[in-house]
């Protein structure tokens, strides 16, 4: 928020008028002083711009005039224009310099009143040097509005108050700096940006296959399941043989031998046998079906239409079943 503008006092206008008259006198005294006419026009233009509240133009013209004629009154007007533009650091500099050079009591009194208030509004300086350099500096206000402030390395004005600064660079994750920046404070931030992870693009093999390729894949899968079922049947056969051997070698006259124990061995042998039989049947059906699909795919080639296939099966103590349902 800019400090309320104070209209030029009659004393200030008299001082500027006297300054203009002095410039006119210098301009008419010698051809070498002809630049005084240009000076007069510059000051008049600055005054008109200030009264029209075009403070940027006024500040630029006052600065040009002060560079040619460092008169304290011009310096004071530069401070006023800078104050209205929100250039608080520059305004304080101009006002405090006037205290060393100027003598107007009214101006000195106002400066003593205004400068402490301006110091509370002077932004802090944030020095940013990112790795890698060249990151875009973005300021984010409390409403979430973003303002680009430049690129690293750079020193930018922030605050005072809560501050959020974001660094962005292509191929890197953004980094954020947040601080309750103090007026006229000084901060440094040197983040090392982290590269964004490379996105892995994995194509679904089933999506890119030709329509005829799905039957071949099902064939190999089915045949593989069939072989696994046959191998499982072999395991149950070994278990059945072991249980049968236990029945045949069971000593009924041995101490602790019971009829229930013998019946248990028999039940185990029968259960293993039935499970092996069902598993062999299922394995044989699956293997045959898989080989059939593989052969069919090989003979039909790319002319094969899209196929659909599903399996149904189950095993219980009473037996089992397996089935294939498909469209070829």
Automatic annotation (TrEMBL):
According to the record, the signal peptide region is 1-34
Q: Where is the PEGA domain?
A: 126-175
User: What SUPFAM superfamilies would the database entry show?
Assistant: TPR-like (SSF48452)
The keyword Signal is assigned to this record? yes
Q: Which UniProt keywords apply?
A: Signal
Q: Which domain of life is it from?
A: Bacteria
Q: What is this protein called?
A: PEGA domain-containing protein
